Amino acid sequence: MLLFLVILCASGMTELSRAGRWCLALFAAVFVVYITEAMPAAVISIAIVPALVLLKITDVNTALGGFSSTSTYLVAGSYILAAAMTKTGLGGRITGFLLTRVGSGVLRISLGIVMVNIVMAFMIPSSTARTAMLLPFVMALVEQYEGAEEDKCKYAENLLLTLCVTSSTISSGIMTSTVSNPMAVSYIYNASGKEISYFQWMLWGFLPALIMTIAAWLMIQICFRPRESQNEMGIQVIRQQMAQLGKISGKERYTVFIIGITIFLWIFGDKMGIDSATAALLGAVLLFFPGVRVLEWKDCQDSISVSVLFVISGGISLGNAMSVTGASDWLASQVLGIIGENVTGPVMIAAVIVIIQFMHLFFVGTAPMANAFFPILVSLALQLDMETEALIMPAAFMIGGYPVLTFFNTTPNILCYDTKKLKAADFLKVGLPISVIACVVYIACAFWYWPGIGLR
After folding, report:
1. Rg of the chain's alpha carbons, rounded to an integer?
2. 235-257 burial by CB neighbour count: b if 16+ within 10 A, else e?
């Protein structure tokens, strides 16, 4: 509230309209609440709608615009697909199958976790859901480890950090794998009318994400490598869990079929006029068909994160208001004055990559971070006469893929930290070098990879 009032009373913003100043003050207040978590993120995102109307910044239809965003429904449909994988046991079956095939050494098991994260990133739209699904398997391996206490600690740290860190890094390369990615698509569409397809996202983002996932795994092996142990007991426990699942059921087969169709439409749907949100909702509906019904609606109620949907929708509404009132243009001009008007192209993208990555230190969750930065970057791109996606996409890659600096950056980190097997310093020990390497990799992409494939 104090910051809100300070901005309203501040001088030097004469070029801003009354609505623009009030919107900027609201944006600053929301930014602080997101960072401090003084209120739940979902609640403050809902509060954006009445605030925009009561402060006479926009009308109610515009204020609710974010709640009709395709991003909201893409995420909702994807959550329903994930619920089917959980209910049928398909997710656990795939996880157990891959882990029992890689072998029992430390390197092999941790690499198996990486493989599961990569495969599941295509099927489950939430790094939190993927981590929660994998965590029981990892803890079974940790508890059955046979070795000295120091080695057991390193083994637990190795597997748990591999689980949460690589779940995030691969997320940057797949449009549906984390919530901030569809948000980026919405901001780009609202600003330029361009629809970024699932295939385009993969073309621009999957290769650097895969490189960074492997690099993150190697960094964890360097920092937390115990003496080699076969850990055959842990593998036996996973085999026993797999045996309890029995033979693959008809509903699991049907779920595989539906998810396969959905992924096919995500990749090739733009050639048939089918967008990613429509494909996700179609796949979700097919899971309820009579005769082959995989889900009941009550199965989805616990799986669909209403909190995430509200954070996405409210944030997009505020971003749209920032754009309409000129507040984001004013902020972008201030940023441009600091960085320099002559800095354009890959150099500007490099600056955005570094700034965004280390701003993770101040945020809990990727969706609030996306809502904070995307409106400013849209205006910055327009003022520099750059394509909107040239700034938004690199920022989205960093926001969605690299919340690795602290244990509170994202829910997967918190889940693994809550096992009491990790220390807060463990995240910084691997997160800092991974962040530096990520900046180098993505800056290299900005200079040499993306210009050749249409992202410039």
Report:
1. 22
2. beebeebbeebeeeeebbebbbe
State the DSSP string of 142-187.
HHT--S-HHHHHHHHHHHHHHHHHHHHHGGGGSTTSSTHHHHHHHH
| Alpha helix ranges (H) inside 170-305 | 180-192, 198-223, 232-245, 250-268, 276-286, 297-301
Both tokens assigned to 65: 């615009």
- Which position has the token pair 């623009």? 20
Q: Which of 259, 238, 314 is nearest to 72 (CA)?
A: 314
Condensed to tens digits (0 to 9), the pLDDT of residues 311-362 reads 888 888 988 898 888 888 888 778 766 776 677 789 999 999 999 999 898 7
Q: What is the pTM of this model?
A: 0.85
Measure Cα distances from 37 to 65, 203, 259, 312, 410 in Å.
24, 35, 35, 16, 13
Nearest to 137 by CA among 118, 172, 162, 170: 162
Two tokens at 434?
């991974």
Residue pair 174/246 in contact (Cβ under 8 Å)? The answer is: no
Q: What does the alpha-carbon distance between residue 225 and residue 299 come to, in Å, rounded to a whole number?
A: 40
Of 385, 384, 406, 397, the closest CA to residue 438 belongs to 397
CA dihedral of residues 427, 185, 177, 72 (deg, nearest 10): 110
Q: What is the DSSP letter of 445?
A: I
For 379-400, the pLDDT digits (tens) are 999 888 899 999 999 999 999 9
Q: Which residues contact residue 378 at a Cβ distance below 8 angstroms, ignoring those fewer than 6 apart?
A: 187, 188, 190, 191, 319, 323, 328, 388, 391, 392
* Encoded tokens for 305: 């994160």
String of DSSP letters for 105-127: SHHHHHHHHHHHHHHHHTT-S-H
Rounded Cα distance between 335 and 212, Å, is 29
Q: How far apart are CA 166 and CA 404, in angstroms?
A: 10
